[in-house]
Design goal:
binds nicotinamide-adenine-dinucleotide; alpha/beta; binds 2'deoxy-thymidine-5'-diphospho-alpha-D-glucose; Rossmann fold; seven-stranded parallel sheet; three-stranded mixed sheet
């Protein structure tokens, strides 16, 4: 199979490309990535240099002409769209790039793939499209979409467009909705790598609100497995939930991380809450279990240890991705919340 993967220089895309090329010796992948602040071409530089089944193209999923040209290559069997603006806090500061990439860009990709008659299209979405849960219950695929942040609203916009492309054109599209990922190559604006980085340099760990918000954590390889199963076995027009069966409060995540890296809990600093902060996410992934045979393979404790080991041995990667633009965003965000 020849895949066009978009956003492959980001966190999940990088892990997905590595896993798929390793697992499927008859697959080849073209990675189309704009290289925003979150995209790092060096993540996959070893493949670029040594793997004939991997190609990198720098480009924007919003670029109609370029994507049409790419998909004119009839050997591309499927598209997997990871490309997105992915950080909730950034979407609160400026929603515009989220609308551009996550809605217009996603629709552009769908339209090009439809016109080029691509066989299959997996659109990677998120549990955040469902909004927030109270103390009980889980999101199912039939939970109404009720996004609360500009990020999740933009993702929900693309999910609805995917639905419309299936209903209207019978376009062979599938949607995955996954909970919070963690693992190697995650950009250090997200909770786990940010807390790791701050803890290592004895800087305060900024916890939003009371730290009691709950996320359902999944190791990134397990999410990649879900996307792979959807691509291979999923029903066209269907959305599938994926989760890690690992609900944790943020403060628990941080305390566990501190104990693994051997740093004191006194580094925890409570700061002003994220506006519109979703209280709880939890995924019912029984549909993916029944139809695709999906089950997460790693417990949160095992996954977190593995992740921290990766960051411990890749401190140069952490330094590399902290460009000037990243520092400016983080400084302003935390100054406002101090
Ligand atoms: P990320 O921010 O780490 O990576 C996004 C990648 O997309 C980057 O390489 C960036 O350069 C690229 N990109 C951005 N705009 C682009 C454009 N216009 N054209 C081409 N490339 C562009 O994100 P991630 O955490 O790897 O998330 C990947 C996908 O998975 C996103 O769609 C996100 O919504 C979804 N998702 C993420 C999580 C999570 O916990 N991180 C959970 C569920 C779903
Ligand atoms: O649920 C899936 C989503 O998970 C993905 O769709 C998003 O792309 C991804 O960014 C992630 O969104 P969250 O907002 O849940 O992740 P984040 O790592 O930003 O925050 C996790 C929790 O930790 C959230 O409750 C906010 C809190 N937090 C986060 C940061 C960065 C803090 O308390 N302090 C922080 O500094």
């Amino acid at each position: 199979m020849k895949l066009l993967v978009t956003g492959g220089c980001g966190f999940i895309g990088t892990n997905f490309i590595r896993l798929m090329l390793d697992k499927h010796k008859d697959w080849s992948i073209i990675n189309l990535d704009k290289l925003t602040y979150a995209g790092n071409r060096l993540n996959l530089i070893d493949l670029e240099e040594n793997e004939s089944r991997y190609d990198f193209i720098q480009g924007d999923i919003c670029d109609r002409e370029m994507v049409m040209d790419l998909l004119a290559d009839k050997t591309i069997d499927a598209v997997v769209n990871f490309a997105a603006e992915s950080h909730v806090d950034r979407s609160i500061n400026d929603p515009s790039p989220f609308v551009t990439t996550n809605i217009q860009g996603a629709q552009n990709l769908m339209e090009c793939a439809r016109q080029r008659k691509t066989d299959r299209f997996v659109h990677v979405s998120t549990d955040e499209v469902y909004g927030s849960l109270g103390d009980s219950g889980k999101f199912t695929e039939t939970t109404p979409l009720a996004p609360n942040s500009p990020y999740s609203a933009s993702k929900a916009g693309a999910d609805l467009m995917a639905r419309a492309y299936f209903e209207t054109y019978k376009f062979p599209i599938l949607v995955t909705r996954c909970s919070n990922n963690y693992g190697p190559y995650q950009f250090p604006e997200k909770l786990i790598p940010l807390m790791f980085m701050n803890a290592k340099s004895d800087k305060p760990l900024p916890v939003y609100g009371n730290g009691m918000n709950i996320r359902d954590w999944i190791y990134v390889d397990d999410h990649c497995l879900g996307v792979e199963l959807t691509l291979i076995k999923g029903r066209e027009g269907q959305a599938y939930n994926f989760g890690g069966d690992a609900e944790e409060t943020n403060i628990n995540v941080i305390k566990t991380l501190l104990s693994i890296v051997g740093k004191p809990e006194s580094l925890v600093t409570y700061v002003k809450d994220r506006p519109g902060h979703d209280q709880r996410y939890a995924m019912d992934f029984s549909l993916a279990a029944e139809e695709l045979g999906f089950a997460p393979t790693l417990s949160f404790e095992a996954g977190l240890k593995k992740t921290i080991e990766w960051y411990e041995s890749n401190t140069t990667w952490l330094e590399q991705v902290q460009s000037g633009e990243y520092r400016t965003f983080m400084n302003t965000w935390y100054e406002e919340r101090a």
